[in-house]
Amino acid sequence: MVISEKANSLIKDFEKTLSLDGPGYGKGTLYAGVDLGTAYIATAVVDDQGVPVAGALTKSQSFVRDGLVLDYVGAISILKEQVVKLQAAGFPLTSAAVAFPPGTTGRNANTFGHVIESVGLEVAGMLDEPTAASKVLDITDGAVVDIGGGTTGISIIKNGEVVYTADEPTGGTHVDLVLSGHFKVGQNEAESMKRDPDKQWEILYLVKPVFEKMAAIVNTHLQNHQVERIYLVGGTSCFPRIEKVMEEETGIKTIKPANPLLVTPLGIALGCKNFCGSSKETVN
Ligand SMILES: Nc1ncnc2c1ncn2[C@@H]1O[C@H](COP(=O)(O)OP(=O)(O)OP(=O)(O)O)[C@@H](O)[C@H]1O
Ligand SMILES: [Mg+2]
Known about the structure:
By secondary structure, the chain is an alpha/beta fold. It has 9 helices and 13 strands. The radius of gyration is 18 Å and the shape is globular.
C-alpha cells in the first residue's frame, strides 16, 4: 500500500500555492489552518472543496519548543505578517483552525489559540497535529508519526478514530546538533547541510543514530497497539531513507507522502472545514 494519488496531489497543489502567484481562486468559502511549529510557522488556506488555494511558510527559530509556545510575541509577529500578506493577496481571512502537539493540554494548548486571536483571527477550532495530518493522508487506520523540528509526535488511528497520541523531544534540531558537533560548524550551517540533497547521502551514517532514537520512541508508544502502517510526516521526514530506518527498527511498513513538511499545515486547514459554521469566510 502506498500514499493515495489524491493525497499526494493535494500536497503538491498546496506546495504550488506557497509562492502566492498562482491563478488564485473563484468564489466561495475559505478555510484556514495555522501550524505553529518549532522550526516553521505555516498557514494553509483551502476552498470549500478542500482544494488548496494559498499558503505561507516562515522559518521560526524556537518560538515553540517541546509542545509549548515559548516566544509568544515572536510567534504572533510572524503569523501577523503571514495573515497580512494573504489578505493583501486577496484571501480575506477572519478565522483559522490551529493545531497543538499531541499530549498538550489545558492552558498550554489554549496558548496556541491565543496566538491566533492575537493576530485578529477567530479560532475556528483546535485539533492535535497528527490528527490534522491524517486528514490529508485520508487514512482510517495506522500510526501517523510527525517528526518536526523539535519533537516526534505519534498518533494511532483505528477505524477513523484517534485512539492514542504522544509527543517526545527529538526532531530535526537534534540532527542539526550532531552535524554541528561533527563538522564543527554553527547550527544554521548544519541545518543547510542536512537539507542539501547533494550532501544527504554522505551524512546519512552520521545522522542515522538520531533516526534510530526517533524509531525507538515510536516503538515504545506502539508497544500495546496493533499497527500495520506507519505514515511519516513532518519536515525531518523529508530526509531520504529515514523511512527505511523507521521500518527496520519497528518492523512495521513505513511510507511517506510527497513533501512531508506540508502535510500537517494542510491538514489543519482541512480540519477547519469540519469545525462549526463560524469558521467560514465567504468571498463573493
Ligand atoms: N529537505 C529536508 N531534509 C531534512 N530535514 C528537513 C528538510 N526540510 C525541512 N527539514 C527539517 O524539518 C524540520 C521542520 O519540520 P516541521 O516544519 O515539520 O517542524 P515544526 O512543525 O516546526 O516542529 P515541531 O512539530 O517539532 O514543533 C526542521 O528541523 C528542518 O531542518
Ligand atoms: Mg510540527
